[in-house]
Amino acid sequence: MDLGIEGRTALVMGASRGIGRGIAGALAREGARVALSSRSEEALQAAAAEIDGEVRSFAADTGDLERLRALPGEVADALGPVEILVANTGGPPGGAALANSLEEWEAAFRSLVLALRVLVEAVLPGMRERSWGRIVNVASSSIREPIAGLTLSNANRMAALGLLETLADEVAGDGITVNTVATGMFATDRLADRHGSLEQAESAARERIPAGRLGRPEEYGDLVAFLCSERAGYLTGAVIPLDGGLLRSV
């Protein structure tokens, strides 16, 4: 299937490892020019070396809003104006409902909500001018069913979803789609840390997930590549679970 994104420029946040790297690899295989971004330049260079295609790395921390404002312009100078934005960032610290400090709340809001707003604000005018754009938000299944012990993620990812659902209505007529993926349990370093090891996470997956296993970052990349495609032009404002059947809500 020709997804029609060859030559398009994509900015993928959190692209140095895990799900972000899986997404970047999938877009590059479809012929997109891919800007990889994360905090660590060293990790980005390692990721870029493993991805076939036209890729460039741009170090940026989602907590640094001024850096994020400048990032799309740097990508445009190197690869072309950003036509595909994949918003992906690591989760904040865990904690019960009132366990986290106000400073942790502010940092989580900055990383998960304000960073997203700043990036969208930077790329949206160009997307509107060209009458084409794709925005994909990498979220969590917690936007449907809050996860115990992950209060900051639960609350702030729901706030980000509210922003994007409002935006989706406003830009649909401009040829721009805005979609969110509700992420289940994937074989990533973060999940391994939460469960003690990747082996323990796999064991939990066999018990909890109808598919009986963890998801793979490459599978995530395939879904996002489709959401960014020409063929997905009528799909917007959607929240798509990618979780092996974990969510029970309708």
Written overview of the protein:
The protein is of the alpha/beta class and 250 residues long. The chain has helices spanning 18-29, 41-50, 65-79, 102-130, 151-171, 189-195, 198-208, 217-227; strands at residues 9-13, 33-38, 55-59, 84-87, 133-138, 176-183, 239-242. Strands 3-2-1-4-5-6-7 form a 7-stranded parallel β-sheet, with helices on both faces. Strand 5, helix 5 and strand 6 form a beta-alpha-beta unit. The radius of gyration is 17 Å and the shape is globular. It starts with 8 loop residues before the first strand and ends in an 8-residue tail after the last strand. The relative contact order is 0.16.
Strand order of the largest sheet: 3-2-1-4-5-6-7
Order of helices and strands: EHEHEHEHEHEHHHE
Q: Give the distance, in angstroms, between the N- and C-terminal Cα atoms.
A: 30 Å
Helical residues, percent: 40-55%
Structure classification: alpha/beta
Give the overall silhouette: globular
Low-confidence stretches: none
Structure summary, number of beta strands:
7
Describe, in short, the structure shown.
With 250 residues, this protein is α/β, with parallel strands linked by helices. It contains eight helices and seven strands, in the order E-H-E-H-E-H-E-H-E-H-E-H-H-H-E.
How is the secondary structure organized here?
Layout: E1 9-13, H1 18-29, E2 33-38, H2 41-50, E3 55-59, H3 65-79, E4 84-87, H4 102-130, E5 133-138, H5 151-171, E6 176-183, H6 189-195, H7 198-208, H8 217-227, E7 239-242
Parallel strand pairs: 1-2, 1-4, 2-3, 4-5, 5-6, 6-7
